[in-house]
Amino acid sequence: MQHLLSMNEVTHSHLNSIFTRANEIKDGTVDWAAKGTFAANIFLEASTRTKNSFYIAERRLGIDVVDVNGSDSSLTKGESLKDTLKALESIGVQLVVLRQPEQGVLQDLSEGLNLSIINAGDGTGEHPTQSLLDLYTISQEFSSFKDLHVTIAGDIKHSRVARSNAHALKKLGAKVSFAAPVEWQDESLSSEYISMDEAVEVSDVLMLLRVQCERHEEQHVSNKDYLSLYGLTVEREARMKRGSIILHPAPVNRGIEIDDVLVECERSRIFDQMSNGVAVRMAIIQKLLEGDL
Ligand code: CP
What we know:
pyrimidine biosynthesis, binds phosphoric acid mono(formamide)ester, alpha/beta, 10 helices, Aspartate carbamoyltransferase, Asp_carbamoyltransf
């Protein structure tokens, strides 16, 4: 694999190889540097975690990073994204980390380029590196994905995280359920949705999603009602299964998807996800540059 565009391309064997490398990186047992490699991080949508953890991952690997953004690059003069990528390839960039708002354009964009593209989020399409760090975080708690009950809950329709994780978890043999208000359900992922009250009682992993206000044309339910109808309240958390964990890709809307006091509760792995993101992204970059994905 030259690019990482979708979780559909990631096999069980890729997953094992990335997780093993991420463990080696964390243990300090792998000495790997890509001196002389140039990467460009192009973020045309806002980001705190993905952009900065990629930057730290790249710098830790000795990679030089050029910053290309939507406000001061020649994208503002009307240059296409494809020509921008061709330009970067021509001046010696080997790796591009790309977040941009359009779903379904990456396959075309990546064709004919002699550099690797990592999809850092394509609109409501996919977010494969988030999925890989989510799966890695789950693997730290459970010995197998087979028959693990994972519920993905919230704004499913607008969530690239839901799409990437749903594909990957089903392929790994997990039982995947979905909980969402009717307006934010996505029939292409499932036609059967469960309530949050059921989700907390059956799930080993409860994966909450951010309410993506910036992608909504209208607000169907107030923020206060959202928490009590569809979010993780203190009362619901008390009914979760023994040993179950809470994930959220963040940023978190505290008091909407999850009660403020639960964000850092014992079951929460939300900040572990962020921390794992650096090692997992280092592993992904190494594997791509080695041609071993
Ligand atoms: N989880 C995630 O993608 O966060 P950012 O938007 O801050 O990168």
